[in-house]
Write a structure and sequence with these properties.
alpha/beta, 555 residues, 3-stranded antiparallel β-sheet
Length: 555
């Protein structure tokens, strides 16, 4: 990565100056390197001399002159400039830039991959909605954020497992099962009331009718608890099938679906209770068993066994994470949770300490709510059922690629508006259309060129000197940096901005430079530009894949 190469060059120059006595001895911090806001200031700039001025006992501008004195000549920098009050600006060499087209073509689909993960075993757990109905559109943000992050981490050299946690036990499931049974009885003409706090959605009515048609009235003749349990199992299967269909529509594929009930069936709950008791992390009061989270840094104690003897909600979290870290051996676990879980973060860290695990190995990403808008107005209910707006409904309305892009387009901790009208607009105003049209346009150019320039493998990229050509290459070279930034900060939304900048650079190049000219004098330039276009296709397609989107050949 050229950014790291320049950073190391600066480090070596400072050390060389220290070795020659032109600078005093001091420990070097991390050297910052940024992109100047104004192009005339070069491709990269470092404020390191402003930061080191006190340590070096020099004015920043004087220190910058010393550092530049010890910077060796390179084939990749054409200009090094000192700017007040002490910045050092670096401009990449045009000839070196042109040669990077060959580097991208050689790397192909691997271009943009980096290795900061070193094979570290990481699990990203995302989605994980209660299996009590179809996925609400709000959960789409969870899915897109987690899945794109998993893609980025893989590209950054991590060994990633994607997991969906199926909350198939507990009070919400009991309510769902009771509701489903009541609707089943109603479907067979029996008087039945859904329980207080149950699920009134139309989808429950439809599923219960299906069960009545498939199974008949046999559950009406069973003891109530047995019937509810049996129907609940069928309902769970329908919900999970529905969720699997929804995530597949969105292009999300999991490595593992993990059942909460299995934590109890396989003895993990009993195991963690024994560990916590032995370590003195539980207390009994008010007829319940409490995890003393406050003793491990939590903000309040949590019930892990209720007064009725049933495990509390947090008991599953402890057992599940014990399974992840101790039994399955993940080095790092990332949980993607909704805004309503913000208050759970301290207790999760306390849980890690109580289990003897480093809290830094668990990262919780909390994402904010999504507001759907159409015609400038907030959309609150499904136009089809008058009920919740499901993720499937939105996918069918605007397409999976638009759903993924728009739900990824803001940082997780920012609330966001999803403009349904803009998502289907076929214009440059729609960022999804704008980016994907760039890829389709490239495919069209390459298709057009097949008969006119059947072989451009021998093209000389040193002919790429036009400012628009070089601007496009500059954008292409940023992909590894964007992957690094997204992986280090767990912020895949940076991909959406990069995709738009890359598409803009390509559209500008296309406007200013004819790729396949009929003038015989341009035959060699045609080949060079077709190489550039091919490289741009690789980079744009890779960016789209990291976001989980398709790279269309035509639109």
């Amino acid at each position: 990565m050229i950014k790291h190469t320049i950073t190391e060059l600066i480090r070596q120059a400072i050390r060389a100056a220290q070795g020659q006595g032109d600078l005093s001895s001091f420990t070097l911090p991390k050297i910052p390197l940024e992109h100047p806001k104004q192009a005339e200031h070069g491709d990269y700039a470092t404020p390191i001399c402003l930061q080191l001025a006190n340590l070096a006992r020099m004015a920043p501008i004087e220190l910058a002159n010393v550092v530049v004195k010890y910077l060796p000549e390179t084939n990749y920098l054409s200009e090094i400039e000192i700017a007040h009050p002490g910045y050092i600006n670096f401009t990449l060499d045009d000839a070196w830039l042109a040669q990077q087209v060959e580097t991208i073509l050689a790397a192909r689909e691997d271009y943009g991959n980096i290795d900061i993960g070193y094979g570290k075993k990481v699990q990203v757990e995302y989605g994980s909605a209660n299996p009590t109905g179809p996925l609400h559109v709000g959960f789409g943000r969870n899915l897109v954020l987690g899945d794109s992050l998993a893609n980025v981490l893989e590209a950054a050299g991590y060994d990633v497992q994607r997991e969906y946690y199926v909350n198939d036990t507990g009070s919400q499931m009991r309510l769902f099962n009771e509701t489903l049974y009541a609707r089943y009885a109603q479907a067979l003409g029996q008087a039945a009331e859904i329980p207080e706090g149950g699920y009134p959605g139309q989808y429950v009515v439809e599923w219960s009718q299906e069960i009545a048609e498939e199974e008949g009235a046999k559950y009406l003749n069973m003891p109530h608890s047995e019937a509810v349990t049996a129907i609940g199992k069928m309902g769970l299967a329908k919900v999970v099938d529905c969720i699997k269909g929804d995530v597949e529509l969105l292009g999300v594929h999991y490595d593992h679906w993990y059942s909460e009930q299995s934590l109890y069936d396989d003895g993990y709950f009993a195991k963690i209770m024994a560990i916590l008791r032995q370590a003195g992390h539980v207390a009994e009061r008010e007829g319940a068993v409490w995890f003393t989270a406050t003793e491990s840094g939590g903000d309040k104690d949590e019930v892990i066994v209720r007064s009725d003897g049933e495990p509390g909600y947090f008991a599953s979290d402890i057992a599940y994470h014990y399974n992840k870290f101790v039994e399955r051996g993940f080095d790092w676990v990332i949980d993607v949770w909704g805004a309503d879980h913000q208050g759970h973060v301290p207790r999760m860290k306390a849980m890690m300490r109580a289990l003897g695990l480093d809290p830094e190995r668990l990262t919780l990403i909390i994402y904010q709510l999504v507001t759907l808008k159409r015609g400038g107005e907030v959309v609150r209910l499904s136009k089809r059922t008058g009920d919740i707006i499901t993720l499937r409904e939105v996918i069918e309305d605007v397409g999976p690629d638009a759903v993924r892009f728009f739900l990824l387009a803001r940082a997780a901790d920012s609330q966001m508006d999803f403009d349904l009208d803009l998502a289907v607009e076929q214009s440059a105003e729609n960022p999804v259309y704008y980016v994907q049209y760039g890829h389709a346009r490239i495919a069209s150019i390459l298709g057009y060129s097949k008969e006119r320039v059947p072989d451009f493998s021998g093209g000389d990229v040193s002919l790429l000197r036009h400012p628009a050509e070089l601007a496009l290459i500059r954008q292409m070279l940023l992909l590894p940096e964007v992957v690094e930034q997204a992986a280090e900060n767990l912020a895949p939304h940076h991909l959406t901005y990069y995709a738009q900048d890359l598409a803009a650079a390509f559209h500008s190049f296309y406007k200013e430079c004819r790729v396949v000219s009929s003038d015989p004098a341009d035959s060699e330039l045609n080949k060079a530009r077709l190489k550039l276009v091919s490289a741009a296709k690789i980079v744009l397609a890779k960016t789209l894949r990291l976001m989980g989107m398709t790279a269309p050949e035509r639109m």
